[in-house]
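Work Package 4 report. The design task specified in the project plan requires that, given a folded chain encoded as structure tokens, an amino acid be chosen for each position. We show below one input record used in the internal validation round.
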């Protein structure tokens, strides 16, 4: 799952501000949440993660989990991203420590958990 653009779009790029807030759906079309922010690897410029916000009511009590960017594809019919990650997988994802963005071992385990190729490979 790597196509992050609407196939009908004449422009293959999208602004990060347009990605934030975009809905994310499970394989069965169930809404999982929305993209809260993107995490970009500074040295390579590659998008590493989309941080998924889910649960809660009107933003209160939301949980946030980074989703490997490679696990999302844009679906023009749903006007959102679709992932093969299930709600159960999301809930069972490895816990994030405070320094998760600087912990390569955690990242390796996380990408392995979701069956994704790491962005740095």
């Amino acid at each position: 799952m790597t196509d992050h653009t609407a196939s009908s779009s004449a422009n293959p790029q999208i602004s990060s501000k347009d990605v934030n807030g975009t809905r994310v759906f499970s394989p069965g079309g169930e809404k999982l949440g929305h993209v809260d922010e993107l995490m970009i690897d500074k040295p390579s410029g590659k998008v590493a993660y989309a941080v998924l916000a889910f649960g809660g009511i009107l933003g209160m009590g939301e949980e946030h989990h980074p989703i490997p960017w490679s696990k999302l594809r844009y679906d023009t019919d749903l006007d959102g991203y679709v992932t093969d990650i299930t709600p159960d997988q999301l809930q069972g994802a490895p816990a994030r420590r405070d320094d998760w963005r600087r912990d390569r071992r955690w990242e390796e385990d996380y990408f392995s958990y979701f069956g994704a190729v790491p962005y740095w490979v």
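Residues 104-114 form the longest helix (11 residues). Validation will be extended to a larger panel in the next phase.
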